[in-house]
Amino acid sequence: MMNVIAGYDPADSTSIDERTAPVPDYLERLDEPIRKLKIAIVPEFVAGADKQVQEALSTALDIYKGLGAEIIEIEMAHLDYAIAAYYVIATAEASSNLARNASQINGYRVNIRKIHRQRVIDLFANLKSSRR
Q1: Among positive and negative, which fits the CA dihedral 97, 102, 104, 106?
Q2: How far apart are CA 114 and CA 5, in angstroms?
Q3: What is the per-residue pLDDT across 54-102, written as a single tens digit (0 to 9) for each?
Q4: How many domains does the chain have?
């Protein structure tokens, strides 16, 4: 499943072509020892989780530690700003993606330069008459 999720998706504009960034075969590496693996935990991510989830994570970390992985806790100082930053970035991305279609309104091509020089009342009158 991980190999499929990590691969290129032509329907996803944020996906990277495998020629640019090849996807490793995760199944092939499944039996590799994890002695050199470092796992970072952000306590704030887990703090609000259900008790069963916290216990399951703790058990998993104990298993990884027993297998030789290094478990470290890290602090993300500006985590409180993450959601606000997400909304700023997401709306900017949406605006950028929609900008290429900004010159079309309901399937009618609109001359943006001409509109810019018009009064609003004239703009709507012209749009209405162009649909007839």
Answers
A1: positive
A2: 46
A3: 999 999 999 999 999 999 999 988 888 988 999 999 998 888 777 766 5
A4: 1
